[in-house]
């Protein structure tokens, strides 16, 4: 089959300005800015682009940027990145823009952000929203393993401190955040205090994925997708997020979601946990990092709390986690952009562009999205060298 | 401080066709769930087919309304202003073998514990909606 030996790589990344509110900004305006900045980073122009993906507005953006006829991706988050890689490697496109942005969508601050509130009949009248959904998962871990609020707070403190030293982070320059700070913040959904939760913000980001034969003049070294995986247990926020939810084949339960996906990713990459230099883990709530460390095999079941307490997720630790502050301190812009920002950060780390929070000599990054409260976890392994 | 049912009109998504008997049951004081006549599996939320054997031969049954707390949270920042805080979303293991998302009431937040026996308490909330809340179960009656 023609095209099967084609390889794709991530050749451009960009974040727009990120802020709690970007006065006067629109989602479309930010998307265009992010797209042009990522293309500039890749040394390409709109005329090179023959594919687009990112969120539900991608088709409209395709029309307004006059990219057609072009390939259109339909996936969400990390899977949109891997879908674009697969499309290029299958020969369906040469240069794909993955772009998403959000501004002006969250104005009623008396309610939680619109994308955090489910609308299912069995969920809505009980006041569920994302913090409560993820709290129901965290609670089971606390019941089973004795995981403590202090251990959760340590995760949030570590990631928020990473954001403090990241230029461009919404909470840049806030100084070191301690576990005591987290525990002293007001309670949102027990066991989550305010600082255990992601923020809400506005901003955009974009990535450019291109065929390897287009890379001769690329200004930045390409970052390769070495492996990927996706685990889903059903639609988000419609059914009870029960840790023990199981499928008919057996295998990992909901609380371990991502275990199968990461196994697939490592198998196709020919790598193992010890090969990973930096973990850009999706951090909607502090506990979700502890859960992923276990599900992804960086520590054993129930060992995630002590693992973070021992400092292993700090920049100087065994597995530095979410080095720009993630959704807690870098940005949590809408439903779609935040899902790409772990990949953008992974690329920055592998290029040596992570500034004061650079993990020295980083060659392999594991990036994730989703979470057990949302019934899915997706992962991608990035590398400076081809698998 | 004891958690209480909501007192104002709540947001509610319209019931799907397959779930209408569940909400009718709540209005009638019955906690209904589906049982498969082919493989005897019980399931909730309702669906057109059995999630175990895929048979479409499902019948509605009425639960004892008793269960235990599987997981819970106490919310202090409401999803929308319609909700008075604190309230306690929870997953209950219902005796007949299914799980249900609910809110715990008539209990102080600090008294909630994993495995705590609870029983359904139907509450008509403003907005033409009867919700199956769960409250600490009265102690089992001792036979004479």
Molecular structure report:
The complex is a heterodimer of chains A (387) and B (144). Chain A has helices at residues 27-42, 58-64, 78-89, 130-145, 149-164, 179-184, 259-269, 286-295, 304-309, 326-329, 337-351; strands at 8-15, 51-53, 71-72, 95-102, 187-189, 192-193, 203-211, 223-232, 278-280, 364-371, 376-383. By secondary structure, chain A is α/β, with parallel strands linked by helices. Chain A has a domain at 8-102: 3-Layer(aba) Sandwich (Peroxisomal Thiolase, Chain A, domain 1). Chain A has a nine-stranded mixed β-sheet with strand order 3-2-4-7-1-8-11-10-9, sandwiched between helices. A two-stranded antiparallel sheet of chain A has the order 5-6. In chain A, strand 2, helix 2 (58-64) and strand 3 (71-72) form a beta-alpha-beta unit. In chain A, helix 5 packs across helix 8 (286-295). The longest helix of chain A is centred in the first third of the chain and has 16 residues, at 27-42. The radius of gyration of chain A is 20 Å and the shape is globular. Chain B is mostly beta strands and 144 residues long. Chain B has one domain (17-136). Helix content of chain B is 6%, strand content 35%. Chain B is built from one helix and eight strands. Chain B has one helix at 20-27; strands at 32-36, 42-43, 58-62, 66-72, 88-94, 98-104, 117-125, 129-136. In chain B, the strands form two sheets. Chain B has a five-stranded antiparallel β-sheet, with helices on one face. A three-stranded antiparallel β-sheet of chain B has the order 2-1-3. In chain B, a hairpin with a 3-residue loop joins strand 5 (88-94) and strand 6 (98-104). The longest helix of chain B has 8 residues, at 20-27. Chain B starts with 19 loop residues before the first helix and ends in an 8-residue tail after the last strand. The chains are: A alpha/beta (387), B mainly beta (144). Chains A and B meet through helix 4 and strand 5 of A and strand 4, strand 5 and strand 6 of B. Chain B: Residues 23-58 form the ChsH2 rubredoxin-like zinc ribbon domain. Chain B: Pfam families: OB_ChsH2_C (PF01796), zf-ChsH2 (PF12172). Chain B: This is DUF35 domain-containing protein. Chain B: Residues 60-123 form the ChsH2 C-terminal OB-fold domain. Chain B: InterPro entries: ChsH2_C, ChsH2_Znr, NA-bd_OB-fold, Thioester_dehydratase-like.
């Amino acid at each position: 089959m023609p095209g099967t030996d084609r390889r794709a790589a991530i050749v451009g990344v960009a974040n727009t300005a990120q802020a709690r509110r970007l006065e006067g900004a629109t989602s479309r305006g930010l998307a265009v800015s992010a797209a042009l900045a990522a293309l500039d980073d890749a040394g390409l122009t709109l005329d090179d682009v023959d594919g687009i993906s990112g969120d539900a507005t991608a088709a409209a953006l395709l029309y307004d940027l006059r990219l057609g006829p072009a390939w259109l991706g339909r996936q969400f988050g990390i899977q949109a990145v891997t879908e674009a890689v697969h499309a290029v490697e299958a020969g369906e496109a040469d240069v794909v823009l993955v772009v998403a942005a959000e501004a002006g969508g969250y104005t009623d601050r008396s309610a939680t952000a619109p994308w955090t509130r489910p609308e299912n009949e069995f969920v809505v009248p009980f006041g569920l929203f994302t913090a409560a959904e993820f709290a129901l998962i965290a609670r089971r871990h606390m019941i089973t393993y004795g995981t403590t609020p202090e251990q959760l707070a340590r995760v949030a403190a570590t990631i928020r401190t990473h954001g403090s030293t990241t230029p461009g982070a919404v909470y840049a320059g806030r100084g070191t955040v301690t576990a005591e700070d987290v525990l002293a913040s007001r309670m949102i959904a027990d066991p989550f205090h305010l600082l255990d939760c992601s923020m809400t913000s506005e901003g955009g980001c974009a990535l450019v994925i291109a065929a390897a034969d287009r890379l001769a003049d690329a200004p930045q070294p390409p970052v390769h997708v070495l492996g990927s995986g996706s685990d889903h247990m059903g639609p988000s926020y419609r059914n009870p997020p029960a840790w023990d939810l199981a499928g008919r084949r057996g295998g990992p339960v909901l609380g371990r979601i991502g275990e199968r996906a990461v196994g697939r990713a490592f198998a196709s990459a020919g790598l193992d946990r010890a090969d990973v230099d930096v973990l850009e883990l999706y951090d909607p709530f502090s506990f979700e990092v502890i859960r992923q460390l276990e599900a992804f095999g960086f520590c054993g079941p129930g060992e995630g709390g002590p693992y973070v307490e021992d400092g292993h997720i700090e920049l100087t630790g065994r597995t530095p986690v979410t080095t720009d502050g993630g959704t807690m301190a870098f940005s949590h812009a809408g439903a779609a952009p935040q899902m790409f920002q772990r990949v953008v950060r992974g690329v920055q780390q592998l290029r040596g562009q992570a500034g004061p929070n650079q993990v020295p000599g980083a060659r392999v990054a594991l990036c994730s999205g989703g979470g057990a409260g949302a019934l899915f976890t997706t992962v991608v392994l990035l590398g400076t060298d081809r698998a | 401080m004891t958690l209480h049912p909501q007192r104002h009109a709540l947001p509610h998504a319209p019931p799907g066709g397959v779930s209408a008997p569940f909400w009718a049951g709540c209005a009638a004081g019955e906690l209904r769930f589906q049982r498969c006549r082919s493989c005897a599996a019980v399931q909730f939320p309702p669906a057109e087919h059995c999630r175990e054997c895929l048979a479409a031969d499902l019948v509605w049954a009425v639960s004892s309304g008793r269960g235990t707390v599987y997981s819970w949270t106490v919310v202090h920042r409401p999803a929308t202003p319609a909700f008075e805080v604190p309230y306690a979303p929870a997953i209950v293991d219902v005796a007949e073998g299914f799980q249900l998302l609910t809110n715990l009431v008539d209990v102080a937040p600090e008294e909630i514990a994993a495995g705590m026996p609870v029983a359904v308490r139907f509450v008509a909330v403003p907005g033409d909606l009867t919700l199956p809340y769960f409250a600490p179960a009265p102690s089992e009656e001792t036979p004479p």
